[in-house]
Specification:
Layout (H helix, E strand, L loop, with lengths): L2 H8 L2 E2 L5 E7 L11 E8 L3 E7 L2 E9 L2 E6 L6 E5 L10 E4 L4 E6 L3 E9 L7 E3 L10
Antiparallel strand pairs: 1-2, 2-3, 3-10, 4-9, 4-11, 5-8, 5-10, 6-7, 6-9
């Protein structure tokens, strides 16, 4: 598998935070209110980064294929928590990670490419999305 064919096969498009994505499902209540959940495929290639950003909902990252992915999570007043999502559970890789609502997050593929899924509850809205300035990073101890 190579990332160009994965992007084409899954119909992924560029994401504002970096990488490529496609929404695969969204709960759409009949009354027009915000849905309970939305799902995306998300792919990062070597050299790409999911820039620091937050969303106003809980986000669960699910590892699917390719190299492991490094995910940093920062809640103001705390320390950056680093997760490695991947298939090798016996080497401290995790198949999923949970990012609390409004926690800053950033990710990078640890190889040529990584395919993950992200579940957002309540459903993702660009109105509840904020990307940090490109030079921003969480404070270090």
């Amino acid at each position: 598998m190579d990332p160009v064919n994965i992007i084409k096969t899954l119909g992924l498009i560029p994401h504002p935070e970096g990488g490529h994505y496609r929404e695969t499902w969204r709960d759409e209540p009949a009354d027009g209110s915000r849905g309970a959940l939305s799902l995306i495929y998300y792919l990062l290639c070597a050299g790409e980064r999911s820039h620091w950003h937050w969303v106003d909902a809980v986000e669960i990252w699910h590892y699917y294929a390719g190299a492991p992915i490094g995910l940093g999570v920062y809640e103001p007043g705390g320390k950056v928590q680093n997760y490695c999502l991947g298939a090798d559970i016996l080497k401290a890789q995790h198949p999923q990670a949970i990012v609390p609502a409004k926690a800053w997050q950033s990710a990078v593929s640890l190889g040529e490419w990584t395919l993950v899924g992200c579940s957002v509850a309540p459903a993702f809205s660009f109105d509840g999305f904020e990307m940090a300035p490109s030079e921003w990073a969480p404070p270090e101890d």
